[in-house]
Amino acid sequence: MVWLHKLLLTLFAFPVRWLVRVNNIPTDIENELGIDKTKPIMYLLRTHSITDQLALKMSTKQVGLPSPTKKISIGDEEHSACVFLQQPQSVIGRSIKGTKIAADFTHLFELHRENKSLDLQIVPVTIFWGRAPGRASSGLADMLADRASPSWLRKFFIVLFLGRDNFVSYSKAVSSRTMTELPGTEADIAHKLIRLAGTHFHRKRQAFNGPTLLERQELYNSILGSASVMNAINDEARNKKIPLGKAKTVARSYINEIAADYREGLIRFGDRVLTRIWNKIYDGIDVGHADKVRKLAQNGHEIIYVPCHRSHMDYLLLTYVIYHEGLVTPHIAAGINLNFWPVGGIFRRGGAFFLRRSFAGNKLYTAVFREYLELLFNKGYSVKYYAEGGRSRTGRLLPPKTGMLAMTLQAMIKGVNRPVSIVPVYIGYEHVMEVGSYLKELKGSSKQKESVFGLFSVVRKLKNYGHGFLNFGEPIQLNNFLDEQVKDWRDAQNTDTDKKPSWLTPTVNTLANQIMVRINQSAAISGMSICALCLLSAKKNAMGQKELEQAVDDYLHLLKLSPYSEMVSLPKEDGKTIVEKTLKLGKMNVHEDSFGKIISLEHRNAVALTYYRNNILHLFAIPGLIAAILFARKGLEKGKLIDLIMSLYPMFQREWFLYMSEDEAKDYAEGLIDSMKEMGMIATSGRKLVPVEPTEKSFYSVWLLNRCVQETLQRYALVLSLLAREKKMSRAALEKQSAKFAERLAALHGISSPEFFDKNVLATFVNALRENNLLADSDDGQLQHSEASEAFRQEIIGLIAPEIAQRLEKLYAQQG
Fold first, then answer.
1. 125-152, pLDDT tens digit by residue?
2. CA–CA dist 21, 741 (Å, integer)
3. What's the pTM?
């Protein structure tokens, strides 16, 4: 029947090519899976299906792998490049027949015994048509649901209606040579491989399609029937003196307000729409480290995505990327402000569940929301929420809000029946459409309420936004995290779960900080962010184009020699290409004189570009501090330089969510110094390290590094000088007065960064001072100037620009 199979492949090739659009998972086969395209490959598929084979053929052509329809040579014999576990289901009945795979593999391993040089890559490939999760009740939609081995009739309709949603998912290759070295006969080894393949395909399908959808009545029964919600309903009825039935109706209305109503068809439709939008407004979307998440999903983990929050685009972009990486799209925690017509209903059907900004004082709402979240975890739905609570207006990470994280840990205590992992996610853009409104809000304008008209306004403004960047950070496995933080946390599983254990708050705070540092640990440098970093550090925000290209090359080379983290993504192009692409985004002025092109920023654009610089400023915190110290001290011995860096590191670590411990930061600083010497950014003069001479090519790059941390050091000096003048102040007064004086200083010295006087940033520094015992607490609970804070102030004053240091010394001298 080989001839018939060939005939069918030929006959169906054209209609399949017309009906099917293949999505490859992963796209980088060689690096992620280690598949060697030069070695023989045998594809292992679950079902003997003509359409699956043709979809695989289309996919292999795209990714550069050998065709599955061609024969491969094994020893002196010709064999099919594809093997199959099962035959399709029969049209009548549900029987599924096996194939002769056991005999084929047995013979294959016999050939290996005879010929020691043979070695094939057996690559399991899972073909998906659509993404429909199972349902508790059957219906007409089940006709199109892609089952493990559908009949040819069902497959006809599946390909006809879901062909544009085809996903070809490759797995790591199994070495046939390695398999032959296992104990047992060739037949035993063949059967073991078949058993493992069956389990593998089952897990793949579960990880791809997700759990069975919750029916509405099951949702009501699960939440309203839980002990915590029943207690809250009783309390509501008693406290408000209303009938029990009315209190239960209120709880039911909260479920309707909160719960998602996931529809897979809307996700498919959204994929088509978003693909068109992304192609229109972005040059591309770069995704990093998705393999880590796929591994978790395949191992049965409950996945909670916790991204940074830059823009409303985040909701769409992350879900879109997750969908195309072959993962279950998550249920998304969205602010109740987004539940307006018509997008509220659309978001809800796309998996959004809505939460109020504050739960304070409403015990029934809190109980319903917490029970809903626990239900999602226990049913196996992936979930996404934002630790920052809202969008960052400055481009920096915001101090985390811990409410959702606390509920997550409480669900763990109550007992989630699967391992749970939090995946931090870094999201960055070369253009954030809300930046203009962010700047207005930082200047005191009230936040604009979301509306249909605002939505139309955004759609109308869609244009070329450069690149989008999304990196999945290092996952945090919550069981392991709790084992490290609270040895006896499992003891709380047998106690009253509505009672908060004493260790919960500090543990949640530690977890929140770990998430934020892992987001920054997986940052992506874009052309816009690195050009903004350079131009905002330059005097008058202007540079020659050659100087800018040189600085970009120097900084990328420095980060390659001494990586901040292996998770950071760097551009692959050189400085010249990066600058040319960034200029096309139209945010920088270019004019030319007889010496060449000058790139500059108008004040309005300079303020806006601080947002993109702040996305990556943490990567240059320690290099910038090295440069600032060497310029200010006109050289310093290496040991003293390291000591000064480490005295400031706790402040930098708190402000920028730097992931390194003090010992790691010390090693990193030493490595940076060596790399900067190697690059000619630092020279030696006797026993001292000094900046290179101004005549050297890299001088301007290292001078800009010094400038990029100046605003931070100036803000530190300002806060400490104000406290030194007043001797003691309440925390609120210190933050308020610091913000006022910082705004004045910014106006006097042309500082264009809104975060220079942002209360969140100032509050973070005050907290860091307290945590590191650089402020004393007075008897009346106020913050008090001390010898330690004065010594620290003098240290920082010595590192900042002389004109600002002089102004701050005048502030300090105004005693009383």
1. 999 988 776 554 454 444 445 555 677 6
2. 59
3. 0.90
